[in-house]
Each structure stands twice: as structure tokens, then as C-alpha cells.
Amino acid sequence: MYVCFVSALHKIVKSGSVHTRQLSTTANKAREMEERKVKVNNMEINYAKVGTGDHPVLLLPGALGSIWTDFKPQVENLNVDRLTIVAWDPPGYGKSRPPDRTFPDDFYQRDATWAYNLMKTLGYSKFSLIGWSDGGITSLLLASAYPDSVYRMVVFGANAYIHPDETKIYESIRDINKWSEKMRIPMIQIYGKDYFQKMWSDWIDAVLRLYEKQNGDLCKQVLPKIKCPTLIIHGAKDAMVLPEHPTYLKQNIANSKLHIFEKGAHNLHLRYSEEFNNLVTNFLVNRK
């Protein structure tokens, strides 16, 4: 949904289909990150991996999002001694093209299956999740479908259903020409203006269709199946996700807790990345 572009501080060395980057951190410690594609269910999925920790964590971006538009401060600065960070471009997004993105009625469930199979392909039978917006919905579905495969989960800017007022929000931002340049330009750089507009309109059509077909329900029915400790994060100034959503998630996910960023908006993890990273790291590394 909300995307933000921050210029990368990295050096790229290309070798075949593998990109190795020396990532600059606040401690001036270089750490190597690999970005490559792997075949999963006959799909070529692009992912980035960094870290040597014994706790694998998958980062799941929002609608139309990618590794570097949605999770650059996390890929660069999360604790790579305690964690192994994997971030992906969902099929049809970012560098996981072709083929182009489609939005059938089960596209959230499809992403959850792809994400689970990606981690299995990479050799991780159990892992944690950090999901933003659409990636948070995907995380909720993944954790409910494969409860024994998820250590811990962090979701933010996520919702289990669509409120009637949110359908109006989606329609109001359908035309990308009404977006701010800060939001629009990074997506045009990835997709081109025409394809970006088409895919964004397709996404809006899909969620509005789900609203009509499923009475707004995206994953309400499966929340009781989630077993893992869950951290729900919400920005009090989020204009995309109504404040009732994190409360609903807290009430319907066992062993969950809620943290509010009072000054945070939909992109709180980018605007307040240091605070977000510390909060998430402390939650993840305390697993039993």
C-alpha cells in the first residue's frame, strides 16, 4: 500500500544471477547480502538474504511492494548475528517477474503458500514472519495454515477484514497521478507508469471484489488457528488502516500483544526504523 523510496547505501558486485552487496550499517560494519532468484512451484522468486543467526525471519512487503521499497532499513539494520533475514518480492512484484501479477480471489492465500514454499526451498522448516500491510495479511494466513512452522510473527498495518469506509479510501487513491511524488516515483521506476497504474487498479478491483463476495472478510475465520506468539504494531496516524483493526487482531489471536506508535503512520517502520527494529528484534530473539 504505502511505499517509500530511500536511496541505497551499498556497493553491488554482480556474478551471474547472484548480486552480492556490502551493506553499510550504523556501526560501519559491512555485512554481505545475497540477492538471487530461486524456482518455487514453477515460479522464479527473487529474494535477498543476510545474516548468520540461527533464527530465520521472512519479511513480507505490502501491495505492489518489493524488498528495497518496503524493507531497506530492516534488511540493512536488523541484528544479523542473532537473525538470518530473508526478504522476498512476491511473484509479479519487484524482480519476481515475469509473469505479471494477477489477483484471483485467493491471491492472499496463494502468496502465503508461495512464501511458505520459498522458505522450505531455502532449507528453513521453521521461521518467523514480519509482514507489512498486505504482507501482514499474508503472514496471518501463513501462520494459520502452517502453525507448526512459525516461531513468532510481527504484523503491522494489517487487517483481517475490510471496513466499508476503507473501500472509499481505496477508490480515492486509484489514480496514481493523485499520489505524492515520494510515493509514486519509486513504483514507476520499478514497473513503468502504465503497468504500475494497471496493476494498482487491478489490486483495488480485487480487494473491492473480495469486500462484496466475502462481506469484507479477508482472514477473520482463520485467526483462532494461529499458535505463535504475535506482536501487532499499529501507527496511530495510519490513514490506510482504521484503528479498530489492531484491536480486533489482539482480541482474536491468542498469545498476542499490541504496540502503538503514537506518531507513526502506515509506513512507521521506515519513518521510525531504529525504534521499530529494536522493538521487533527484542520480540523475536526472546523465543523459547
With helices defined by DSSP (H or I, 4 residues minimum), what is the helix count? 10
How would you write the strand order of the largest sheet? 1-2-3-4-6-5-7-8-9-10
Oligomer: single chain
CATH topology of the domain at 33-161 and 218-285: Rossmann fold
CATH superfamily of the domain at 33-161 and 218-285: Alpha/Beta hydrolase fold, catalytic domain
What is the strand content? 15-25%
> What structural class do you assign from the helix and strand content?
alpha/beta
Low-confidence blocks of residues = 1-16, 24-30
Number of strands: 10
CATH architecture of the domain at 33-161 and 218-285: 3-Layer(aba) Sandwich
Estimate the global geometry from the Cα principal axes: globular
Reading the helices and strands in chain order gives EEEEEHHEHEHEHHHEHEHH
Mean pLDDT over all positions: 91
C-alpha-based Rg, rounded: 18 Å
Give the % helix: 25-40%
The end-to-end distance, rounded to whole angstroms, is 33 Å
> Major sheet: size, sense and barrel closure?
10 strands, mixed
Explain what you see:
- Mean pLDDT is 91; it is low at 1-16 and 24-30.
- The two termini are 33 Å apart.
- This protein has 10 helices and 10 strands.
- A hairpin with a 7-residue loop joins strand 2 and strand 3.
- By secondary structure, it is an alpha/beta fold.
- It has a domain at 33-161 and 218-285: Rossmann fold (3-Layer(aba) Sandwich), CATH 3.40.50.
- Helix 3 (107-121) crosses helix 4 (134-145), helix 5 (164-172) runs antiparallel to helix 7 and helix 6 (181-191) crosses helix 7 (193-213).
- The relative contact order is 0.15.
